[in-house]
Task: inverse folding
């Protein structure tokens, strides 16, 4: 089966915010990076994937199953790692394992102790003494110990120091070598994804802007720089958003061919980073 996660026309309304008509497919065996500014709707979408929030409308399936009839079977196959301590603060890792292990049919004690050792986690210290990075590792050790096929991570690198972030990303890369595991990874630190993501899903203001392979993102999106005299109502149609300055303009395009046809050699075309894409979709800076 190709898609591990499928969202069809999923909507969730709150008083001052809504996630609207999300159509998203997450492919098996790949790392999908879920990007967007804080408040774009990433956590709401993940909570719906985890059945922690119910959508107002639309359909959510994991492994081709719905939560209504298959909640236990789905949760057996998911590991959830998120920003913050999900465990009781006064408890140590040994106690937590004793509570968590019986909940999973495929719990593997040997694997758990292997990860505890690899991650250098103390078994007898209270969770509240753990650093943020250690809490993240504890969460990951538990997810991996029940052979989770899908690992969902909500902002796992936020607040981690650069060395630990790099370590975590290397570990995730290692986990993907077997090829049967899927990672869905939300973040606003886009440089992390350049290293490990196969697909990028981009949310803004509660809507999914695109879900593309990282290769397609690089092929489709570019920064374009040129003189202000080149801009008029027709030529601007080639851009997502234009940023004007006294020295010229810089703009984001999602259609490099159209830019080449319109402007020829009179503009400079450069690769757009994920940060550039997020910035320009948000409207860039209107005042200079």
Result:
């Amino acid at each position: 089966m190709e898609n591990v996660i499928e969202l069809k026309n999923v909507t969730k309304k709150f008083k001052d915010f809504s996630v609207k008509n999300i159509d998203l497919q997450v492919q098996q065996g790949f790392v999908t990076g879920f990007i967007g500014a804080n408040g774009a709707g990433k956590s709401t979408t993940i909570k719906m994937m985890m059945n922690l929030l119910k959508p107002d409308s639309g359909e959510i399936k994991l492994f081709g199953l719905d939560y209504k009839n298959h909640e236990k079977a789905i949760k057996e196959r998911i590991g959830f790692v998120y920003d913050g301590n999900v465990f009781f603060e006064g408890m140590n890792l040994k106690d937590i394992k004793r509570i968590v292990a019986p909940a999973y049919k495929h719990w593997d004690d040997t694997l758990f102790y292997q990860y505890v050792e690899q991650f250098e986690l103390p078994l007898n210290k209270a969770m509240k003494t753990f650093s943020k990075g250690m809490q993240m590792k504890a969460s990951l050790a538990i997810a991996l110990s029940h052979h989770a096929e899908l690992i969902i991570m909500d902002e796992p690198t936020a607040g981690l120091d650069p060395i630990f972030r790099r370590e975590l990303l290397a570990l995730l890369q290692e986990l993907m070598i077997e090829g049967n595991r899927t990672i869905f990874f939300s973040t606003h630190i886009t440089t992390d994804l350049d290293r490990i993501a196969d697909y990028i899903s981009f949310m803004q203001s509660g809507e999914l802007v695109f879900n593309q392979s990282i290769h397609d993102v690089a092929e489709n999106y570019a920064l374009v720089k040129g003189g202000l005299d080149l801009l008029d109502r027709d030529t601007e149609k080639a851009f997502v958003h234009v940023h004007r300055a006294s020295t010229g303009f810089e703009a984001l395009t999602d259609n490099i061919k159209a830019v080449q046809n319109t402007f020829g050699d009179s503009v400079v075309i450069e690769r757009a980073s994920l940060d550039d894409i997020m910035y320009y979709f948000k409207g860039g800076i209107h005042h200079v």
